[in-house]
Please model this.
Amino acid sequence: MSRTRTTPGRRVESDVVDIGEHEFESGEILPDLKVAYEAYGEFDGQNAVLVCHGLTGSQHVAGHGTESGVSGQARAWWGDIVGPGKALDTNDYYVICVNVPGSCYGTSGPASEGPDGEPWGTDFPPVTVHDWTRAQRRLLDHLGVGRLHAVVGGSVGGMNALDWAVQFPDDVERLAVVASAARLDSQCLGIDAVARRAITSDPNWNGGDYYGEERPSPDAGLGLARQLGHLMYLSKDSMERKFGRRSAGRGERGDAFPSDPAASFFPYREVESYLDYQAEKFAERFDANAYLYLTRAMDDFDLSEGYESDAAALAAFEGEALLVSFTGDWHFTTEQSESLAGAFRRGDVPVAHHVVESDHGHDAFLVEPEKVGPPLADFVDEGVAGRAVTDTAPDGGEPDEDEDFAPVHSSLFSR
Model:
């Protein structure tokens, strides 16, 4: 059901659209792919900004729960960045966020209804980032949106944004890739593999067929997968500051997971309590099969697939690009963003690699809006020449390839 709410300074659309037959990259065809989206502000024909969400995010990027029909997502995941007077100012821009295929917030995925009236489960076609991008393009066509003023994405949403520069290079004027990379490294691939095995090893997973009120869900497996994710999203410094070795109380162990008899002798630490809480809350809002599908899509993405290099993949893109990385992020590192910046530079694309000093880890792009907002706002408004935008190669060249990469802020140089 379509919902449109208008309040002073804010107009919100929320809808699920049947975009018709969709052929997935796997070759499988869905006759009626449904795509959920939210849009904020007024479209004037030239001011559309697409925001690509992270792995377990939804289309509910801004606002409050009363404006969204997205179950379990009452709190917007980037509400400090998107909205009236914020970095992506919905007084100026028409901001759209689309839930990707394979997810569980309204767009077709394993938990949605299949041809037999039952949830698809693991019979749902495999999905890739390319499928996400193509579904977004078709949804935008439905909305009457052609060329985008900007595409912005964080984490795997940044991979989604990069894919726009490959599949639809003429449709994007400005590209902002935040805390992301051209591909996952082997360590992250390994962690994702263990997370999926935690789900599929849960007896309640039942081969992906666990839907229905009388069937228990694989909450334990999904919870463990989420705990691995949280460990990947935080840095050593941020975890030490948050938890240290502090005890949550001897004998006060949570009941989310079974423990051995000797456990009661040892402290239940704050870090364990935090992870158990996150596991419990996540299992209440997300679908285990969707987690399998989306992590595989992320793992599969490789910007240079089918091309000789990342630069070759981006060769057709003629807009401007901003890469934002965080020094404490070991999931998507500053070095990976610098490599991407080099690929854009080799194609003579105006690009800036803005490095943020942070010890928050990968979560920094969500929890430090005061550092992310200014460069993002200025880039969307003015491109790489934006006042708050800095670059690791301020003279327009490249860092010396014979030296280790070290972030250098352009504010150290005269303009």
